[in-house]
Amino acid sequence: MQSDKSADGFSRVSRLNHWIVGAAILALFGLGLVFHEMPRGPERASLQALHVSIGTLAILPILFRIFWRVREGFPEPLPAPRWQHIASKVVHWGLLLCLLGLVISGPLAQWSGRAGELSVLGWFAIPSPVSPSRALHEAAENAHAVIARPFLLVLLIVHVLAVAKHLVIDKDRTLMRMVTGPRT
Question: Does domain 12-179 have CATH number 1.20.950.20?
Fold first, then answer.
Protein backbone atom coordinates (compact mmCIF):
# COMPACT_ATOMS: atom_id res chain seq x y z
CA MET A 1 0.00 0.00 0.00
CA GLN A 2 1.50 3.31 -1.07
CA SER A 3 1.53 6.21 1.32
CA ASP A 4 0.39 9.70 0.40
CA LYS A 5 2.09 11.12 3.48
CA SER A 6 3.73 14.50 3.22
CA ALA A 7 5.99 16.34 5.61
CA ASP A 8 3.10 18.68 6.42
CA GLY A 9 0.59 16.06 7.51
CA PHE A 10 -0.65 12.54 7.86
CA SER A 11 -1.71 10.33 4.95
CA ARG A 12 -5.41 9.75 4.20
CA VAL A 13 -5.01 6.19 5.51
CA SER A 14 -3.53 7.52 8.78
CA ARG A 15 -6.28 10.07 9.23
CA LEU A 16 -9.11 7.63 8.50
CA ASN A 17 -7.62 4.94 10.72
CA HIS A 18 -7.00 7.45 13.53
CA TRP A 19 -10.65 8.49 13.65
CA ILE A 20 -12.06 4.96 13.27
CA VAL A 21 -9.87 3.59 16.05
CA GLY A 22 -10.46 6.71 18.16
CA ALA A 23 -14.24 6.30 17.92
CA ALA A 24 -13.99 2.59 18.75
CA ILE A 25 -11.75 3.26 21.75
CA LEU A 26 -14.07 5.94 23.12
CA ALA A 27 -17.08 3.61 22.73
CA LEU A 28 -15.20 0.70 24.33
CA PHE A 29 -13.89 2.86 27.16
CA GLY A 30 -17.35 4.28 27.87
CA LEU A 31 -18.99 0.86 27.83
CA GLY A 32 -16.25 -0.54 30.04
CA LEU A 33 -16.69 2.22 32.61
CA VAL A 34 -20.46 1.79 32.67
CA PHE A 35 -20.71 -1.99 32.93
CA HIS A 36 -17.81 -2.21 35.38
CA GLU A 37 -19.80 -0.13 37.89
CA MET A 38 -23.04 -2.11 37.43
CA PRO A 39 -24.15 -4.98 39.64
CA ARG A 40 -24.06 -8.42 38.04
CA GLY A 41 -27.18 -9.12 36.05
CA PRO A 42 -28.65 -9.19 32.55
CA GLU A 43 -28.10 -5.47 31.89
CA ARG A 44 -24.42 -5.71 32.79
CA ALA A 45 -24.01 -8.91 30.77
CA SER A 46 -25.63 -7.21 27.77
CA LEU A 47 -23.30 -4.19 27.92
CA GLN A 48 -20.30 -6.45 28.47
CA ALA A 49 -21.28 -8.52 25.42
CA LEU A 50 -21.54 -5.31 23.39
CA HIS A 51 -18.08 -4.28 24.66
CA VAL A 52 -16.66 -7.66 23.59
CA SER A 53 -18.35 -7.41 20.19
CA ILE A 54 -17.08 -3.91 19.44
CA GLY A 55 -13.65 -4.82 20.80
CA THR A 56 -13.47 -7.90 18.58
CA LEU A 57 -14.50 -5.90 15.52
CA ALA A 58 -11.89 -3.26 16.42
CA ILE A 59 -8.96 -5.70 16.70
CA LEU A 60 -7.96 -5.54 13.03
CA PRO A 61 -8.25 -1.74 12.69
CA ILE A 62 -6.26 -1.31 15.93
CA LEU A 63 -3.53 -3.70 14.81
CA PHE A 64 -3.46 -1.98 11.43
CA ARG A 65 -3.19 1.41 13.19
CA ILE A 66 -0.17 0.22 15.15
CA PHE A 67 1.44 -1.32 12.05
CA TRP A 68 0.76 1.76 9.92
CA ARG A 69 2.07 4.24 12.51
CA VAL A 70 5.28 2.22 12.97
CA ARG A 71 5.64 1.97 9.18
CA GLU A 72 4.86 5.62 8.46
CA GLY A 73 6.38 7.28 11.48
CA PHE A 74 5.13 10.76 12.34
CA PRO A 75 5.21 13.86 10.15
CA GLU A 76 7.66 16.62 10.87
CA PRO A 77 6.53 18.36 14.05
CA LEU A 78 5.42 21.95 13.99
CA PRO A 79 7.74 24.40 15.75
CA ALA A 80 7.58 23.89 19.51
CA PRO A 81 9.94 23.56 22.48
CA ARG A 82 11.93 20.32 22.62
CA TRP A 83 10.08 19.08 25.74
CA GLN A 84 6.78 19.24 23.83
CA HIS A 85 8.18 17.11 21.01
CA ILE A 86 9.40 14.56 23.55
CA ALA A 87 6.08 14.61 25.41
CA SER A 88 4.23 14.15 22.12
CA LYS A 89 6.30 11.09 21.22
CA VAL A 90 5.84 9.59 24.71
CA VAL A 91 2.07 10.08 24.56
CA HIS A 92 1.69 8.75 21.01
CA TRP A 93 3.88 5.68 21.57
CA GLY A 94 2.22 5.15 24.96
CA LEU A 95 -1.20 5.15 23.30
CA LEU A 96 -0.04 2.61 20.71
CA LEU A 97 1.44 0.36 23.42
CA CYS A 98 -1.78 0.59 25.44
CA LEU A 99 -3.81 -0.39 22.37
CA LEU A 100 -1.54 -3.38 21.77
CA GLY A 101 -1.87 -4.43 25.42
CA LEU A 102 -5.67 -4.11 25.27
CA VAL A 103 -5.87 -6.11 22.01
CA ILE A 104 -3.94 -8.92 23.72
CA SER A 105 -5.46 -8.82 27.21
CA GLY A 106 -9.11 -8.38 26.16
CA PRO A 107 -9.42 -11.51 24.02
CA LEU A 108 -7.27 -13.51 26.49
CA ALA A 109 -9.59 -12.55 29.34
CA GLN A 110 -12.60 -13.62 27.32
CA TRP A 111 -11.09 -16.83 25.93
CA SER A 112 -9.72 -18.02 29.26
CA GLY A 113 -12.98 -17.33 31.09
CA ARG A 114 -16.31 -19.10 31.09
CA ALA A 115 -17.40 -17.80 27.68
CA GLY A 116 -14.42 -19.32 25.93
CA GLU A 117 -15.07 -17.46 22.68
CA LEU A 118 -15.33 -13.98 21.26
CA SER A 119 -18.93 -13.60 20.17
CA VAL A 120 -19.67 -10.72 17.81
CA LEU A 121 -23.28 -9.54 18.12
CA GLY A 122 -24.44 -13.13 17.69
CA TRP A 123 -23.27 -13.05 14.06
CA PHE A 124 -20.20 -15.21 14.54
CA ALA A 125 -17.79 -16.32 17.25
CA ILE A 126 -14.04 -16.73 17.36
CA PRO A 127 -13.24 -19.89 19.33
CA SER A 128 -10.63 -19.86 22.04
CA PRO A 129 -7.09 -20.97 21.25
CA VAL A 130 -6.45 -21.43 25.00
CA SER A 131 -7.99 -23.68 27.63
CA PRO A 132 -10.13 -22.10 30.33
CA SER A 133 -7.92 -20.99 33.20
CA ARG A 134 -9.00 -18.98 36.19
CA ALA A 135 -5.43 -17.74 36.77
CA LEU A 136 -4.97 -16.62 33.15
CA HIS A 137 -8.46 -15.12 33.09
CA GLU A 138 -7.82 -13.04 36.22
CA ALA A 139 -4.35 -11.96 35.05
CA ALA A 140 -5.67 -10.91 31.62
CA GLU A 141 -8.70 -9.18 33.13
CA ASN A 142 -6.50 -7.29 35.62
CA ALA A 143 -4.03 -6.32 32.89
CA HIS A 144 -6.91 -5.10 30.70
CA ALA A 145 -8.29 -2.98 33.55
CA VAL A 146 -4.90 -1.52 34.51
CA ILE A 147 -3.99 -0.70 30.92
CA ALA A 148 -7.36 1.00 30.38
CA ARG A 149 -7.38 2.73 33.76
CA PRO A 150 -5.13 4.52 34.58
CA PHE A 151 -2.71 4.36 31.61
CA LEU A 152 -5.00 4.73 28.59
CA LEU A 153 -7.25 7.19 30.42
CA VAL A 154 -4.35 9.46 31.40
CA LEU A 155 -2.79 9.31 27.93
CA LEU A 156 -6.14 10.09 26.26
CA ILE A 157 -6.70 13.06 28.56
CA VAL A 158 -3.19 14.39 27.85
CA HIS A 159 -3.75 13.83 24.11
CA VAL A 160 -7.04 15.76 24.10
CA LEU A 161 -5.60 18.56 26.27
CA ALA A 162 -2.62 18.87 23.90
CA VAL A 163 -4.97 19.13 20.93
CA ALA A 164 -6.97 21.82 22.76
CA LYS A 165 -3.74 23.70 23.56
CA HIS A 166 -2.70 23.64 19.91
CA LEU A 167 -6.15 24.76 18.80
CA VAL A 168 -6.87 27.47 21.40
CA ILE A 169 -3.50 28.73 22.63
CA ASP A 170 -1.04 28.04 19.79
CA LYS A 171 -3.63 28.43 17.02
CA ASP A 172 -1.49 26.20 14.79
CA ARG A 173 -2.31 23.48 12.22
CA THR A 174 -1.80 20.46 14.50
CA LEU A 175 -5.47 19.44 14.56
CA MET A 176 -6.03 20.31 10.91
CA ARG A 177 -3.22 17.98 9.85
CA MET A 178 -5.25 15.10 11.30
CA VAL A 179 -8.56 16.36 9.92
CA THR A 180 -7.87 17.67 6.43
CA GLY A 181 -4.30 16.59 5.81
CA PRO A 182 -1.51 18.57 4.21
CA ARG A 183 -1.93 22.07 2.89
CA THR A 184 -2.64 22.25 -0.79
Answer: yes
